[in-house]
């Protein structure tokens, strides 16, 4: 079956092209289509060539036919606005096949993008019994719906990656400073009152408050220092 048609797609050609080459976004634009896990069984038309496995539920002649198969990307030129793909699918219930090649060409238009579709398809099985004319009408209706949904998909920005996949950046200032037991000595050339130090809410402020509450504390500290000095002198004399 030869299928040739032109469709109007909202959005610039570059955005539409990017949506078409993204398997997930392209599948979202096709009614009745969804991506499925890769099959290990070789397909008749393209064998075991790598591609994107998908399922399509096609409404034609009052019947629904489910195909499962693979889409194999072909040539793609973003600057020229051209891309192609091959497909090979089988009926989920039956021996019919849907095989062929699609060639797409995008060009700018007053309303967004003009999409040219040329398809050469082989259809057998249940779809063959529907008749080529009715099958062609069903395919054209499907492509019209694809064009509308493709415009919506192209207009949406690409989804942001999940936070779990983003690298974790740790700033050094975020981590609390380690507390080390010991004493801190301040050495200055001139006497400096503790209240004049640029410290807020820290240990020095607490010390200043304690000294005000206990005026005898400096004398006790001085006495302890003198005792230590006397012991050091005695050891040095020995």
Secondary-structure element series: EHHEEEEEEHHHH
CATH architecture of the largest domain: 2-Layer Sandwich
Query: How many structural domains are formed by the residues?
Result: 2
Indicate the proportion of strand residues.
Answer: 25-35%
CATH class of the largest domain: Alpha Beta
Task: Report how far apart the termini are.
Answer: 113 Å
CATH topology description of the largest domain:
Alpha-D-Glucose-1,6-Bisphosphate, Chain A, domain 4
Report the sheet with the most strands, covering strand number, pairing sense and barrel closure.
7 strands, antiparallel
Tell me the total number of β-strands. 7
Secondary structure: helix percent? 25-40%
- Tell the overall outline: elongated
As a whole number of angstroms, the C-alpha radius of gyration is 38 Å
Unreliable segments of 5+ consecutive residues: 160-180, 197-205
Widest sheet: strand order? 1-7-6-5-4-3-2
Structural class assignment: alpha+beta
**pLDDT average, as an integer?**
76
Question: Care to give the gist of this entry?
Answer:
The protein is of the alpha+beta class and 238 residues long. It has helices at residues 13-21, 23-29, 126-130, 132-155, 203-213, 217-237; strands at residues 2-10, 33-35, 52-60, 63-77, 82-91, 97-109, 112-123.
């Amino acid at each position: 079956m030869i299928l040739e048609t032109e469709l109007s797609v909202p959005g610039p050609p570059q955005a539409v092209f990017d949506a078409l080459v993204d398997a997930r976004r392209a599948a979202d634009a096709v009614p009745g289509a969804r991506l499925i896990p890769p099959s290990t069984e070789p397909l008749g038309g393209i064998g075991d060539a790598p591609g994107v496995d998908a399922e399509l539920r096609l409404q034609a002649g009052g019947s629904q036919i489910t195909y499962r198969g693979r889409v194999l990307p072909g040539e793609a030129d973003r600057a020229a606005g051209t891309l192609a793909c091959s497909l090979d699918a089988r009926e989920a219930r039956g021996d019919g096949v849907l095989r062929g090649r699609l060639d797409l060409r995008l060009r700018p238009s007053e309303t967004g993008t003009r999409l040219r579709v040329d398809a050469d398809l082989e259809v057998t099985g249940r779809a063959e019994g529907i008749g080529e004319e009715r099958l062609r009408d069903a395919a054209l209706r499907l492509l019209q719906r694809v064009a509308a949904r493709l415009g919506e998909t192209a207009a949406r920005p690409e989804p942001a990656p999940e936070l779990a996949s983003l690298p974790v950046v740790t700033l050094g200032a975020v981590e609390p400073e380690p507390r080390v037991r010991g004493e801190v000595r301040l050495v200055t050339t001139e006497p400096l009152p503790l209240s004049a130090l640029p410290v807020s809410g820290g240990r020095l402020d607490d010390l200043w408050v304690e000294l005000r509450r206990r005026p005898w504390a400096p004398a006790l500290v001085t006495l302890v220092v003198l005792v230590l000095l006397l012991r050091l002198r005695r050891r040095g004399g020995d």
